[in-house]
Design brief:
- Helix 7 links the parallel strand 4 and strand 5.
- Helices cover about 40% and strands about 15% of the residues.
- Helix 1 crosses helix 7.
- Strands 1-2-3-4-5-7-6 form a seven-stranded mixed beta sheet.
- It contains nine helices and seven strands.
- With about 300 residues, the protein is α+β, with helices and mostly antiparallel strands.
Length: about 300
C-alpha cells in the first residue's frame, strides 16, 4: 500500500539544485511585487508598527525572513523549525480527524447512487419484514456503518502520513530543493501549516498539508498560508501550482478559488492511502477527489 502523501494538493517541477538558490535582490523584489499584483491583498488588521526591512543578504527559500503577508493581528507566516515538529503534527492530525463525520454524513450528498442504494435497502427491509420499526432502524444502521468505515480508512491514512512525510518534516520538506514547509505563528504558538513539494516531470509545485487550528479559523490564516506557496512558486519560476483535495466543506473550495485556482475536474474513483477496497468499504466509504490548478505562466 502506498503510504506517501496523497495527491491532495499540487505538482511542480524542479531543475538543478543551483537553480533554486536565492535570487538576486532586485529580481526577487520584482517577482514578489508581481505576485502581490496577482492576488488581492488580505484584509488589513490593526497591530504594532511594521518591523524595519531585513538587512541585505541571502533570504530563506520562502521569501524575506520566511515571513508572509499578515493574516491577522500578531500572526506571521514563516518557515518551519525542527522544534515545531509535534505542534505541526498535532494540527495536521486534528484537521484530518474532522473529516471523519464530514465524509460519513455530509459527504453522502455528493453520491446520489449511494443514496439510491440505501433507499432500496430500506425498502427491501420493509418488503421482507413488514415492520416499520425495523425499517426505521435501517437508515441509522447504514449511517453508523458509514461512520465506522470513514473512521477506519481515515485513521489508516493518518497512520501512513504520520510515518512518512509528517514523521520528519525537516528531512522531507526543508532539505530537498523545490520543497518547503511553513507555519503560521500567533503569540509564539503554531496555529497553521502548509507545505510545497516540487514535481520535476511537469514543472509544477504541489500545495499540500494545509491546515489551521480550529480555534483560529476565520482570521485569513489559511489564505495567507496558500499565498505563501504561490509566492514560493513564482520566486522559483514554476509554471503552475496544483492541488488535489477530498475536502467536503464548501469553505475549503471557496478558499482555493479565492486564491485564483481553477477547478479542473472531480473523480469518485480516487483511492485514498489506507483504503483496502473491500466490498464493505466500497458500500460505506466514498470520497470525491477534486483537482485544482493555478497557471502562473505558459510553458
Amino acid at each position: 500500500m502506498h503510504c506517501g502523501p496523497p495527491d491532495m494538493v499540487c505538482e511542480t517541477k524542479i531543475v538543478a539544485a543551483e537553480d533554486h538558490e536565492a535570487l538576486p535582490g532586485a529580481k526577487k523584489d520584482a517577482l514578489l511585487a508581481a505576485a502581490g499584483a496577482m492576488w488581492p491583498p488580505l484584509p488589513a488588521a490593526p497591530g504594532p508598527a511594521a518591523a524595519p526591512p531585513p538587512a541585505p543578504g541571502p533570504q530563506p527559500r520562502g521569501g524575506p525572513e520566511g515571513a508572509g503577508p499578515p493574516a491577522g493581528r500578531g500572526v506571521c507566516i514563516r518557515e518551519f523549525r525542527a522544534a515545531e515538529q509535534e505542534a505541526a503534527r498535532r494540527i495536521f492530525y486534528d484537521g484530518i480527524l474532522e473529516r471523519i463525520p464530514n465524509t460519513a454524513f455530509r459527504g453522502l450528498r455528493q453520491h446520489p447512487r449511494t443514496q439510491l442504494l440505501y433507499a432500496l435497502l430500506t425498502a427491501l427491509c420493509f418488503a421482507v419484514t413488514r415492520s416499520l420499526m425495523l425499517t426505521c432502524l435501517v437508515p441509522a444502521v447504514l449511517l453508523a456503518l458509514r461512520y465506522y468505515y470513514s473512521r477506519k480508512v481515515i485513521l489508516a491514512y493518518l497512520e501512513c502520513a504520520l510515518h512518512t512525510d509528517m514523521a520528519d518534516i525537516e528531512q522531507y520538506y526543508m532539505k530537498p530543493p523545490g520543497s518547503c514547509f511553513w507555519v503560521a505563528v500567533l503569540d509564539g504558538n503554531v496555529v497553521g501549516i502548509v507545505a510545497a513539494r516540487a514535481q520535476e516531470e511537469d514543472n509544477t509545485v504541489e500545495l499540500l498539508r494545509m491546515s489551521v487550528d480550529s480555534r483560529f479559523r476565520g482570521k485569513g490564516i489559511a489564505k495567507a498560508l496558500g499565498r505563501k506557496v504561490l509566492e514560493f512558486a513564482v520566486l522559483h519560476d514554476y509554471s503552475a501550482v496544483v492541488l488535489g483535495t477530498t475536502a467536503v466543506k464548501v469553505a475549503a473550495h471557496k478558499l482555493y478559488e479565492s486564491l485564483g485556482f481553477r477547478h479542473m475536474g472531480a473523480s469518485d474513483h480516487y483511492v485514498l492511502p489506507g483504503m483496502t477496497l473491500s466490498l464493505a468499504e466500497r458500500l460505506f466509504f466514498q470520497v470525491r477527489y477534486h483537482r485544482y490548478r493555478l497557471q502562473l505562466r505558459e510553458e
